[in-house]
């Protein structure tokens, strides 16, 4: 398999279009056409991880965090980022990053945290905006149904738990074929009027190429008139964080003990106890202080995340328990998630789980 073929496989799990705008995801180093000898899955791509990949005969590293986050103006080996990139290039090791694309899908980072805590009745904490598109096109009434079926098969018309969703109205289309035209209906040089259907279908941003390909390949006209509009609607299936309910309520100290056990951490920074039982829990892997308000609005009794600053803890306001279990700790399950996914999707290929410890934080 090539690097691109494995990247395409990963994007079935977490389309890159679902990543945050500030992020740097996808293939960061390497040739997409190169044949892959083995894949090493890691949370972070450090120098030791590149060395591990070389030792194991893996020329593709699939990493959660992007080693190149901001632009590199030079590669001299002065920083750990430059050294990683230089060593990868020298040894023809490709690096592919998932990051917030995997954060934002239901079966990604936060879904795995919810699995660890046994959360039920889950929903996205902050549904994403700008991830939906609307297609408007015009088709002869005789070709409407066949075109609709092709668009549905390409991923258009999916609204939550409903599929094959569309709206159409009828009207009269006009066109004048030029001398070099090859019209399906009508004649060159003559104004033609045709009963047409105007179709409207929504689809997710990651399906745009497939939907437009289906439109062009299945539309009867030589020239296809269409519009694609970006929608600001929230998309309930994609977004930051997750909220759900524990199978049974716990008091706050019991809940913190559960977090210590599940995340394997010796200590947890937390806000004042509220005195309430914990049943509804919000989670967000990595730096999640920005979502404290969303957790409160969702009615969470506790919010589990990382990198909460001093003043952020005041936002608990006695309404919920804030639990900072650590950046690495909240994302540690991610490499196992990716390893399991690739092993299932490509069972006859060498997929290795990195044994290099990449957590930069120690506890004394």
Automatic annotation (TrEMBL):
Binding site for a divalent metal cation: 65, 103, 327, 331
Gene Ontology cellular component terms for the protein in this record: cytoplasm
Presence of the UniProt keyword Zinc in the record: no
Entry keyword annotation includes Membrane: no
Superkingdom of the source species: Bacteria
GO function term, MF aspect, one: metal ion binding
Pfam family, one: DUF34_NIF3
Keyword annotations of the record: Metal-binding
Classification via NCBIfam families: YbgI_SA1388
UniProt family annotation: Belongs to the GTP cyclohydrolase I type 2/NIF3 family.
Summary of subunit composition and partner proteins: Homohexamer.
Protein name: GTP cyclohydrolase 1 type 2 homolog
